[in-house]
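Interim report, section 4.2 (structural modelling).
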Amino acid sequence: MISRVADHCFWFGRYLERTESTARLLQVTASLALDSELTPEQCWQPVVITAGEQERFAELCGPFAAADGDAVQRYLTLDERVPVSLRRSIAAARENARSSRDVISLEAWEIVNELHLYLMSPAAREDFEEHPYGFYRRIRREAQLCLGLLRATMLHDTPLYFCWLGVLLERVGQTARILDVQYHAFLAAESAGRGAYPIVEVSLWLSLLRACYGFEPFMKIHRGIVSAQSVAAFLIFEPRFPRGVRHGLRRVRDLLLAVRPTAPGVPVPRAYARIEALEEWIDGQNATRLDARAVHEILTRVVDETHALCDLVQSELIAAAPQSQSQSQSQGQTQMQSQFPSNGGA
Amino acid sequence: MNLFGGYRGLPGVWDELFDGEGKPRLGFGRAIDALDSRTALEFGRCQTLAERALLNQGVTFSVYNDDRGTEKIFPVCLLPRLISAEEWRKVEEGLQQRLRALSMFLDDVYGEQRILAEGRIPRELVLGAKQYLPILRGTSAPGGVRIHVSGIDLIRDPSGTFRVLEDNLRTPSGVSYVLENRVVTKRVMPRTVDVARVQRVEDYPARLAETLVSVSPVSPEESTIVVLTPGPYNSAYFEHSFLARTMGLELVEAADLFVDDDRVWLRTTSGPRRVHVVYRRTDEAFLDPEVFRKDSMLGVPGIMRAWAKGNVALANAPGNGVADDKAVYAYVPEMVRFYLAEEPLLEQVRTWVCFREDDRQYVLEHLAEMVVKAVDEAGGYGMLIGPQASAAERDAFRAKIQAEPRSYVAQRLIELSTCPTWDKVSGHVVPRRVDLRPYSLFGKNGAWVLPGGLTRVALVEGSYVVNSSQGGGSKDTWVMKP
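Predicted structure of the assembly:
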């Protein structure tokens, strides 16, 4: 397929997945903030960090705005100035789809176009102010519908593979970021509240699972026994959980092979070696003895490697694509590292 | 009250649906009754539904001069324009004849120039046309076709006669709206379309693909055909992607193509792939910076060399502009007689060519009655409508004509026919002026005309300008089944 179009497909997938996961995270956190024992800042600051937006957020909304859930939500939903806001993400997804309409199916296009028109309309702001749960639900559902339609209406061929590579790499990165940031924040909150509110911790880990769609799958395996360690292990290592890191990486590897099958005489793209090494490394970690430091170490590596893989997909597999667009390389990796110095566990 | 209750055409103007006494024209009774079974309120709802459907599907055009890339739907009126099967057959034959003559003219102008040698058209007029490309002299188009896709605009005069208003032989647009209007009409007024018995339009993309493959320098199975667009910010981008999608071809931008060894290649994820036919929707001036505008970012350097070598077919062929020049237009009937030894089947509009001294004199003396057009402008720009213009505007045009007579032609103001049209503000049906752009395809096996075409309507009361950039909209055109 045309390199430029492959590039649009890849980014279409990334932005679509980013929209869905951001809406989900905001929805789950809004629900958590209602009745948890955490301060508003403890709930919302991790959301801002996960989005990689601390600096801009402080600059635009003030240094203490992370304690204001409404401010955080407004910032990440309809704010035109914020590249990762839902409105901008969907606009970017739609723009990439519009530039590859000869391969994106009509059905999928219509959904993303309608969602874009909705987010640009006054109705979206009204819904957001009046009934945020319904607002997030609508965005998530339409994004999910669009993801489903891609698979149900497009030829299972290279264009779809590139869309899906974008979706999966974004999804793995997003799961890793959410887990890393929230894990750290909740551990801190838990240790501060230990003894006084023994029940607090469970609600936090459940919230984290919900943000990654892992609540019911987790319960099926762990039968209601929830701990920080088991939740982290589930989200990282469980091969059957579709939003888990391990599962996502396996799927990415399959897609890489589908896009560029190995053949004698054809150089093997570096992306293969890279993802194989990452999978092996993760398999070598001890899932039963995970402390906070180990979790952070694993997730940092996953986030870095997904970035590197995105770059390799573009340079090796999409290749020769005219460098016309300056699409934002996903949310700030550097902020995350600086936020978590190596003593970040405890 | 029903939808058409109280509808009256304009005096001295042909109405497409009703005769002078307000009765449905012959053969339209069934369709008009079906439309008329609604109240104005009910019709207004259909209209709203249709507009929302078009917006949601992204059937839009980009608005120029808007750096946010705003998109609008092309305004559509759901009340169709009707044409009887018999009338259509005449139009079709007339268009096919005209296209045959125009094609032969282009081959001649870029070849022997017989028609000029025999003095049937003034040599200076043709060779002086801005769109004449001397560099192409002696080249022949791969596949032998130059006017693969054309949109020859027709109007209807007060006697009901169709007349050619202008020939568009370069990159005529709008056909996607014909197809999308039909889809939406069928969706919101299914029974009406059923009862009216309308000829279908949906096979256009398949016919276009067939036309393109017919001119490929290699066998159909080996051919790679692409649609070349200037990109998502072009006002007709929707149409480019629509045609690519419905033909199953790849939509490419100039940077996706390159030329090597006088062959055109596509940059793909699995390496370069040879391209054999390009349906290009990029203006000629931007097509190849080696030959045309050096500053073009939309061009493919070397593509003209590949074309001249016969390694890639371009649809439409470069250089066609000399045949749709508004001054050369005056001589098309002469071309029909010269090349085909036939009388033209289609009338056209009497045109005074300011290049000719007698004509110029007449135009300058009768400016208040004439419509003056710049020969190389389009979209309703660069035009003087004498009867509606101020004295100062007329004086300005007088000076322009005297300075550059080759650049202007004039016609009398023609009372364009009207068609009943929905007026959203008043909630009534009102007469508005229309033209018709039928789309013709010309492949190795001859010409085919899409039944109907795009009816453009001047939505503003009293306006004669149907262009979308100036308050025009569109209508579905229903050619009745015989």
